[in-house]
TrEMBL record:
Subcellular location: Cell membrane
Stored Gene3D superfamilies: P-loop containing nucleotide triphosphate hydrolases
GO CC list: plasma membrane
Membrane-topology descriptor: Peripheral membrane protein
Annotated source species: Mucilaginibacter gossypiicola
Protein name: Predicted ATPase
Amino acid sequence: MQAKPFLKEIQIKREMVPSFDAYPFHIPSIRGLSSLKFHPDVTFIIGENGSGKSTLIEAIALHMGFSTEGGSKNAQFQTHNNSSRLFNYLTSIKSFKKPNDYFFLRAESYYNLATYMENAYESEKDRDTFERQYGVRSLHECSHGESFMATLTNRLTGNGLYIFDEPEAALSPNRQMAALSLINTLVNENSQFIIATHSPILLAYPGATIYQLDDSGIKQVRYEETEHYMVTKHFLNNYTEMTRILFGD
Ligand SMILES: Nc1ncnc2c1ncn2[C@@H]1O[C@H](COP(=O)(O)OP(=O)(O)OP(=O)(O)O)[C@@H](O)[C@H]1O
């Protein structure tokens, strides 16, 4: 019997929702959602800005016991409270087996997480522990991308459930490819990923489930059908013409 996916499915307790006309239930992708099944290895959530990716992924993370701004499950902190109530209306189907490792990596609030970690590991001894876990002495003394990669490379130990919200935000194209390779290593070490992304590089992960959020709801799409793949490919192959069109020349 397979341990993965650790998180098999989420379901929305639709009968409990007070109104589908108010945030977050009025978002078209959430309004029609009853359940979502996850791939044992990698599930992507994609969609236009404002389509509800962060709202959905945050609710999944909160339901799993993470804090809004990310980190491991031990990182229970909050610098502000603007999470949606969606997580209160989720139930889930989980594996008979729990993962050994958990991490919620969120580009938007990564700075706050780094600050929380600096404060939580204050003494010299704690900082040694931190350095062993993250591979660097201070996340704030790295660039945004470097500290993101340090977390990916060193902190995630495998056999884990990892939820990422736009991890590419800090990463160069080369680092996105390095992240893709790390994700594959961790999948081979029995990990499951749920990732909201705009990255055509990350989305290339072979065999992943890709859910696209839009005004008509949520549907599963193939990599080559995604706007990320098609638009990027078209732009790069025709960038001179595209810039002329975009500039109205
Ligand atoms: N706290 C909030 N209160 C009210 N509306 C909100 C709140 N947070 C987000 N929204 C709205 O919900 C919608 C979905 O936002 P969300 O952040 O989930 O989008 P997204 O797909 O992650 O976008 P992006 O790609 O820009 O990060 C947007 O229209 C946004 O304006």
